[in-house]
Each structure stands twice: as C-alpha cells, then as structure tokens.
Amino acid sequence: MTFQQIISRVYELYPHGETTATILNHINAGQDELSNYFGKTLIDESLVTVASQDNYAFPAYCEDADQIQFVDIGNSATPTDRFDYTRYCFHKLEDGRPSGTVYFQVYSSVGSRSLGISPVPNTDNLPIRITFSKKLTEATAGTLLNSPEFDSRYHDLLVYYACHMLCASGASPDSIQADAFMQKFEDGLSELWRTKMTKTINAPLKRNDNRHWHR
Asked: What is the pTM for the complete model shown?
C-alpha cells in the first residue's frame, strides 16, 4: 500500500475528522515501532577521536543510542583489519560511573542527544566506526504516493496503529476501540518476533574472524 492508501484505510476503519497531518504523525510513530524489525543497518566511519573529548555528534540517520548496535574505535589512525579496533559496550549513565571501554548517551540542557565514550581519548584522529539501525523514512505530505520501506504484508500494522492513536486521543477517548486496534498491532508484532526468531534458529549468525568479538 501507499501512504495515501493507508490513510484511506484508516478513514474506512475509524471515520473521524482529524487532518492528514495528524494521521501522518501517527503513521510515523508506528514506523518508529517497526524500525526494530525493518530498519536498515548502516555503518558510519565519518567520526574520528579528538584528544580529551568524550562527546561526539551522532552520524546522519542516527538519533539515539538505542539505534546503535556496535561502536568500534581504531587502535591506530589507519587500521589494517578488524583486529585493529577496540569494541565499546553500551553503558547506562544511571548505572553509575562508567568502567571499561563503553559508550553512552549524553543529553544537553535542551534535551538533544549525542554519543559519549569512555575512557576519554588521548589521541586525535582514531576512526570511530558506528554500526546502527536506520529508522524507516518518515511519511510526509509530499510522499503520500510512496510505500513504506518494508514488507507489504505488514503495512496494515500502520493502519491499526494510527487507528489506535486516533481512538485513544481527543476529548472523549474511545478506550474499547483503542484497545482493540492495539491488540491487532501487537498481534502483528508477535508474528514478526516469531518470524525473526525462526530465522535466527534456522540460520544462526557465524563468528567473524576477529578473536575479540563476533556478530
């Protein structure tokens, strides 16, 4: 389905007086939920360390530490292979002072996010390689004829999610309908999870030749 067809389907299942812009906001929120299943994995190598600096901007298309799968920092300015990288593990700041080689999320005074690494680099120009999941592209008023970037068998999930949000909002929320639509959405997520687990069991990931980690 195209986004326009998804919007039309929302109107069919739950007639309402909301604007297209409002429905698109709900559709995009639903896409964020589905990005864990359908987001594309990207590898960004544009960042380099700056001595005595532990805070770095996220690369393009990465907005939150939750999207990150791996952070690897080179042991030299020009690594020759994967053995010449150190892997950093995720650390929640609320767990206390970071120990070991870790990355974490930093919040500014206005709530913007950035990447923190510890220990603080003492060398310039070491490559920072970030492997992360790119969120699905947002729908806009100018892309209504496009289709979502994932398997068309699951496009109805966006319909259910948008209907749920419409039912759950407003001056007189329709909680019964909202719960019914959310149940349909969650049933779809359960099916996705089962499919993902089946693939993992039938085709497990193999070790890479790096002795320090495997993906």
From this structure: 0.70
Q: Give me 143's structure tokens.
A: 């892309």
Residue 129 domain flag: yes
Range of the domain at 176: 3-38+137-202
Residue 75 gets which letter from DSSP? S
Which pLDDT does position 99 carry in this prediction? 82
In a domain, 110, yes or no: yes
Whether 51 and 124 share a structural domain = yes
The span from the CA of 66 to the CA of 144, in Å, is 28
- Listed residue (47, 33, 89, 40) closest to 61, CA to CA: 40
The reply to whether 73 and 87 lie within a common domain is: yes
Is the dihedral angle over the CA atoms 165, 157, 136, 109 positive or is it negative? positive
- As a whole number of angstroms, the distance between CA 28 and CA 25 comes to 5
